[in-house]
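Look over this record before class:
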Amino acid sequence: MNRRSFCLGTALALMPSLPASAESSRAVLYKDPDCNCCDAYASYLRENGFEVDVKATDDLAAISSKAGVPEKFQGCHTMFVGGYVVDGHVPINTIRKLLSDRPPIAGVTLPGMPSGSPGMVGRKEGPFIIYAVAKDGAPPTIYATE
């Protein structure tokens, strides 16, 4: 091994680990064509460093179901980011935790359209309960509260 190769290899080995890849900050958000709160949620994500491609669809329930989100746990839009599904108005802190921790789940969901959640108008009334969506179809469990 020559000196240059040794120095380069040593420098690479000593570099701090990089944050989540740029790929994990790219998201595709499917929404009802007439929903404005979904556009507000996409803006919220962009303000927090995500690249978001918004796609209008009339098959939102089918997209959520296919991703493993049970009907009663679905939100008003479905997003795919970093290999996970994120359904509904999930706060950015929970998304960052999901992408950082990389748990063996399909994704997370904040069912319905809670007032005061990111992209929604109104005042927050109590904690948001965000559920983990299992890969094997098991019932969702609590992932986080915010």
Remarks:
- The two ends are 53 Å apart (CA to CA).
- Residues 75 and 113 are 6 Å apart (CA to CA).
